[in-house]
Write a structure and sequence with these properties.
Blueprint: H1 2-5, H2 9-22, H3 26-42, H4 46-59, H5 64-79, H6 83-96, H7 102-119, H8 122-133, H9 140-156, H10 160-173, H11 177-191
Length: 192
Amino acid sequence: DLLRGIDKDEEAMALCRQALNEVQDRSQRGNILLHMADIYRDKGNTEKAKELYEEVMNLSKSEWYSLDARGRMAEIYSREAKFTEAINIYQDLITVIPKKDYGRINWTRLDLGNLYRNSGDMDKAKKSYEEVINNNTASLNQRIEGRLRLVDLLRGIDKDEEAMALCRQALNEVQDRSQRGNILLHMADIYR
């Protein structure tokens, strides 16, 4: 990570290859391959990155490194506007995340909502955001984020009154100044 931070990707990749040859532990191999895939992705070689993410996913179905690889693969497909592929990955990801990892499940649902929105399926996007908003396992931050994403969606389809009601509801739940400020900005944008 240090070498990548100072634009020494080739050296970082060489260290990863060396470590990969020395390690047999699946978790460590998954972590190393994930780093290698990230380097390829960041350098613009998304095909090679996808190959390595696939290799990481084949090491395990539900270990953290496999879950991260799935999410990153979906992000690449999303950037490539291959929404169906990205949506399929996120739908699968939700089923393999350990059931008690509520945080990851809820963030994944929010990301899935974004994919639906970007693909033009506003009904599924709304449903995905509402699953988090109405989910008692979601943190307050996740519920607020879900509301704000839904506010943005509603504003995009000329449902400003509904969006404003969501903002007011969120404002009543939040004490954090930063979050309140963000909600107030959304409200100001609606009035504008």
